[in-house]
Description:
The protein is 42% helix and 8% strand.
Amino acid sequence: MIAGGTERGLSSVQFGESREELLANLRREYPQAILEPVEKPYPKQLHEWTESLCRYLEGALPVLDVPVDVPATPFQMRVWKHLQSIPYGEVRTYAEIAAALGSAARAVGHACAANRVAVVIPCHRVVRGDGGLGGYRWGLDRKRALIDRERAASGQAQVLV
DNA sequence: CTTCCAGCCTTTT
DNA sequence: AAAAGGCTGGAAG
């Protein structure tokens, strides 16, 4: 994984197969940004955010509360905010989200697809109403892995129909 | 099981 | 301004 951010929050958290691939992706998304590989003089906040992220993934941190700094339409903001209210280890359907927002399921899917901040905005916790996984920007295997891992870490029974 | 279309937001023309 | 299409869903064939 790679994490990038500004002084205001994380702006990009992505999955990839290699360091090169990840860096290339980041460069493509922010062609004008000055990318500094932060090996040593870690900006304090960025360090805290990524720390939280890691511990959260391990299930050691119940709620992830890090700021994000991503350009978004008002609608996307509402969807993402709602996604962040899904507890660790649980999943919702696109329809549920849509109902809560008074919108349509498909629009929700579109908003999720636009999310660039993996895990922080848990678009992997949204599945289809018919039991299917739906899609995932970084690959369905990754989505499945995240959900399984979270479910296991949260100690819930794995009742999967 | 396989269309079909309503639905809402974004992106492209 | 108009049209297409997406990480859907529910109804119809």
